[in-house]
Amino acid sequence: MFKRFLKFTLRGIAGAIVDTIVLFILTRFFFHSYFTTYILGPTISFEAGILVAYVICYFWIWNHRVYHNTSDFFRRIPAYNGAALISFSVKMALLITIERIFHFDVIICNLIALLFSGSVNFFIGEKIIFKEENLIIQETKEDIG
After folding, report:
1. Rounded to an integer, what distance in angstroms lies between the CA atom of residue 127 and that of residue 66?
2. Cα 72 from Cα 106, distance rounded (Å)
3. Fewer beta carbons under 10 A from the terminal one: N or C of the chain?
4. Total structural domains in the chain?
């Protein structure tokens, strides 16, 4: 599990980079009100980062627990996105709390919040979305087929 957590950390870095770049572009060029800068922008950027993170999880981190077909790939997305919404709730609560207390720039608040919300996301992925039982089912199908 430690090796997967390290990979997940790298996935988190990739997701955070995508999240931050999207947030930077949105808040510097398109969004200027408090709502669009601190609510809408982080929402859009988080979803972009989550999509990249899911692809990394599916094909690299938990690739030994998936079926490697289109149906399985898309079947897991709603659960992964649901887990991401839980993680997103943690992120947004922290982002707004940090901004209110310390008055940091949205990018700094976002990065701090991502550190905590990422841990929540890992444990949901490990124990629910890509749980070990899927590996047993896959091995059984490979033995039969």
Report:
1. 14
2. 36
3. C
4. 1
Distance between CA atoms of 129 and 89, rounded to whole angstroms?
Answer: 18
Tally of CA atoms within 13 A in the half-sphere of 117 that contains its CB? 26
Token pair 């870095």 is found at 13
pTM above 0.85, yes or no: no
29, 35, 23: which is closest to 106 by C-alpha?
Answer: 23
Closest CA to 90 of 126, 59, 66, 119: 119
**Residue 138, both tokens:** 């896959």
Kindly report, residue by residue over 68-100, the tens digit of the pLDDT.
899 999 999 999 989 888 888 988 899 999 999
Residue 145 in 3-state DSSP? coil
Amino acid making up residue 81 = N
Give the domain range for residue 132: 2-144
